[in-house]
User: What shape does this take?
Amino acid sequence: MKIICTQENLKKAIFNCERVVAKKNTLPILNNILFETDNGGLRLSATNLEIGVSSKIGAKIEKEGKITIPAKVISNFINNLLSEDNISLEVVDNKLKIKSSKNKAIIMGIPADDFPLIPIKKNDHLLEISADKLKKALSSVLSAVALNESRQELTGINFIFNEEEISLAATDSFRLAEFKIKATEFTLNNEIYNNFIKENNNIIVPSNTIIELNRIISNDFNEKIKITIEESQIFFEIDGIKIVSRLIDGKYPDYKQIIPKEYKTKIIGDKSIIQNAIKLSSIFSSNNSSEITLKIDQENKKIFMLSANSETGENSTEVNFEITGVSQEIVFNSKYLLDGVNIISSSKIAILSNTELTPVAIKEVNEKTNEISEELIYIVMPVKN
Amino acid sequence: MTNEELWQATLGEIELLISKANFITWFKNTSILSKTNGHVVISVPNGFAKEWLENKYNLYILRTLKNLDKEIQSISCQITNKHKPSPLKTSENPVDAIIPPKRIIPSNNINSGQISPQSNLNPRYTFENFIVGGSNELAKAACFAVSQNLGHIYNPLFIYGGVGLGKTHLIQSIGNESIKNNSQLKIKYISSERFTSDLIDSIRSQKINKFKEDYQKIDLLIIDDIQFISGKEKTQEEFFHIFNYLYQLNKQIVLSSDRPPKAIQILEERLRSRFEGGMIADVSKPDLETRIAILQRKASLDNIEITNEALEFIAENITNNIRELEGALNRVAVSSQLTKELLDLDYTKKILSDIIASSIKKGINHKHILKVVSKFYEVDINDLIVKNRKQEIVKPRQIAMYLMREELHYSYPGIGSKLGGRDHTTAIHACEKITQILKTDEKLANDLKYIKEQLYLID
Assistant: This one.
């Protein structure tokens, strides 16, 4: 193999692949990134046998070929290389020679023959979503994913596909985040999509895959992401980058039924105010349960965030929000409440509740129309007394 | 040949052809799904295995399968997600997508007295509330040093002493202190009797390896009343292995017993020598000042209002062990609560009169002592009384005198006259001599303990 490419392109491709390499494994080759020429370009691939990522960049091919290089070495090398224009890569005897105008390096590699084959999708894609929308959806729900592996299905993100919308959801059983992408935001591959949703429209994608995808699309992409699901695997494709992952086998809890249909009390106001009030109160909440109390006083038109702890003291912050509905006093775990407020991207926020024992919802408020947006909903359970 | 056997045979051959790492990576969780018309469908756990088996190992697999079954012409792979259904799933309530977080009640471990299920430690026992006196100074210092530097100073630490003198308190304090310093430590406090019964359970349920593994993970192992493993060979053997394993990893081991390792009967020599290899410290009976201090502390902890004279009276009269001491205090406290009387010296005397009197055992007299002593030393009872100074008689006679003094509170002239009209100075000498020897001679102390036990068995 002998090629020439820009440093920028190579850096990007390595960034996309480096995180996927396996941390612990039986096969040493899984620590490596595969470099191979592919139809007039250079393709880099990495996998840990759960997720596979490959990223294709433009390059001038002088001689075809392939090799695998330890991800750590190549990534450190490229990231520390001063900005240069072009880099030439050449494979000689299982070694990769890298040459820029000022720097030369030889990296020991492993022949590519034993590198796993990254699964390739057979059918056409299911749908296309704008990267921006998907990025927002993924970052909104990720904070609620369960880290504890005692319930496998909760360690992933649930996707439910319907004709009119796609719902993404995550829960660790104390709180739940759901993001709905409306049909207008995606383009369907009609025939395949209809067949698919008839068979099984409910899948769980491992959160590691989602974190990786989110990281890769965090660079600005104006393009659309193609999604394909087949044979217990999900494929994402964008701009020469392909991600494939297994799906989590299991039944996701039927969360839709716990989302209240209507609410007795609704408060609306600036996100930064409530964010600050929670942070202040959490200082004085007891270390173990981090309890803080939201007191909505309808008669006096006042809202307070309260906390008290026998060791540190107590705190009360007035929150200037608009109140509709009856008075309430609800105890929260401050961490769960703050997580919910943090994922709100609008400047105004709405908190909706029924009683001190039933789920409380946090939603965004459309800045132009001042209406509550239904796109994102974060449900948190009050602390039980 | 069933599909399963066929696949096992195939795997067996393939394993020889490729490296172990490759074999484990690609053939783990595979099986034959179906075999129809010479076409075999192999179930694989993920897409990577499917690609690899279909494209790289297809020839190996096909050739091997063909050797075993001539009809097989082709293979293909299919991804199956065959996870074991988690036990949670079946019992799952469909509405449990989200549940309220429970309020965590801040637990104040020191006061709650809850026994922690992992370590078995009772948080009530700490060094702070252990009262140090001359009798237990060394033991406490050793325990404290061990808790500050687990596994490196005195390993194993062996604490011995009579009942109710604070061994359990001390060794549990090591555990509680270590947990305070590093909550990640794996600590286990167990009595040797529990150890034995756990071992028996694990043998019965054929989980002996798990039993061993569990113990080998421990950073600090505390075994109380180790003398009870005496005579239990299998327990000793298993304990020996666990002991060695932990010792080699520099994990701390703390043992307690009612007697020194030498005096534990039927203990394998290799265990005995190991017990003696670390630090041995004893706790003995507390002196009067310590006893008063203990009573004062207990009275203030339990909010018992009692005069100092009354406390001194209890401390003077109940000398054997701390548990009895605390029991006596409880007794006067409870009865004064019932009668609403002031806890002073007279009242205490009245309440405790029967307990204190009972320490002179009813119905035991000098004849019983002579009988038991003569039986123990295998001498004739008359030899003890008549005048002679044979070496083998002198010692038993002195012990008999000592016991009459200690147990029956006889006067020295009285003791003399009971033993063939000897002079009271002979009795005084005998008692002093035995008291002196007892301080250094553990064998004699144990003999005496045995004699006393025999004495109380007489009815």
Remarks:
- The CA atoms of residues 175 and 270 of chain A lie 22 Å apart.
